[in-house]
Design goal:
The protein is mainly alpha-helical. It has helices at about 15-65, 70-85, 95-100, 110-115, 120-130, 145-150, 150-170, 205-220, 220-225, 240-250, and strands at about 180-185, 195-200. It folds into 2 domains: about 15-100, no CATH class; about 110-220, no CATH class. A two-stranded antiparallel ribbon has the order 1-2. InterPro entries: DNA/RNA_pol_sf (IPR043502), RT_dom (IPR000477).
Length: about 250
Amino acid sequence: MLQRRVSQDSPTTSRDLRQWWDHGKVLIQQLCHEYTVNITRDITKSLEDLEIAIVELQALAESTGDRRHVEELKVKKALMADLLDLYRSEHRDSKELLDIFYQGLPKVSSEDNAALEGPLVLEELHAALNTMPGGKAPGIDGLPVEFYKFFWKELGEDLLEVLEKSFRERCLPLSSLRAVITLLPKKGDLQDIKNWRPVSLLCTDYKVMSKALANHLRDIVDSVIQTDQTYCVPNRSIVDNVSLIQDILDIS
């Protein structure tokens, strides 16, 4: 029998429990929608731009007889439309639900918060870079991990300076705000667009920054993530949950 942990503010009656559960599901849906709302807006704008380009090229094709570019844009439009459907969301705001969601959640201590907000140093960036495997496709700038590792002595301090300025001004370089989207085949009929998986290729400098920031978080996540979450938390193993399930089956 699984033990359900409750706090002082948790529901005490069956009706309260059902309402609490429904509120939670709505909030989860809202958080998912918030994550995708900007993607949906960008894809919609791209679709509108493609539609305009198709109309202009169709007029040109009628006079020249060359329809190759029109067909290429139509394929791009079909791909963008499929992505739009994938990321479509219905955004709703509800401060009340957010307040309910945040009740009872653990908080980071003042000391840990100060450490998290501390500046990145060159050694952290270098350590993050060294953990990244090679042989991966680069982002829009075409600079792979191997390039940064080879030229780190020349580029390291410059990258740190750029990131420090970016954090102060809350604005990353344009290349760090862009990704190259490519398609990887899945199983099934590859003539069906749903059997292709979109993958975003990010620039290496952005990934180095992200990894360094993730390392900042690594040392404190176990204090705010509930103990039942064993995957991707330092000093915990997903095998623990397998053992827990086995113990539950043995006891029940």
